[in-house]
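Pasting as-is:
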Amino acid sequence: MVRRDNVEEPLFTDREVFHMRDVKQLVIGLDQVRLFTGLFLLGFVVTSLVVERRRGLVLVGDWLAFGGGLTVGLLLLTGFALLVGFDQLFLLFHLISFRNDLWVLDPAEHNLIRLFPEPFWFSAALLLAAFTLAQGILALFIGLAATRAGQNPRQNGNPSAVG
C-alpha cells in the first residue's frame, strides 16, 4: 500500500499483480528445467567416469569443451544482438514467455514499469550474458584440461609414462 493525496491505495494494479504471478511461474519452470538438466548432467558424468574410467574423462572433457565453446559463441552473438536490438529481443521474449498481454504496461499508470524500466532490464540482460559467458569460458578450459588429463600419457608426449 502507498499513500497518495492522503489516500491509501495498492502500489500495484491487478494487472501488475497478475503479471508478477506469471513471472513467478516462469521462474519456477526455469528452475525445474535447470534441476532436471543438472541431474541429467551429473548422471552422465558419474556414469561416464565409472563405466569408462579414463576414456570417460576424455568423453566428459570433450563434451564440456564443446558446450563451453558453443556457449561462448552463442553468447557473443546474443551480446551483439542485445546491443543492437534490445527492444526487439525484449518484445520477443515476452511474446514467447507469456500467453497473455498482462506484461504490456503503461508507465503513466503502472508502478511496476516505473520501478523496473527498460534500462534496468537491459543492464540485467548484459550482466546475465557476462556471467554466462564467463561460465562458458570456464567450461571450455575445464573440458580441455579434463580431455588432456584423460588421454593416454604416451599421447601427451611422455613416452616413459605407463597408461
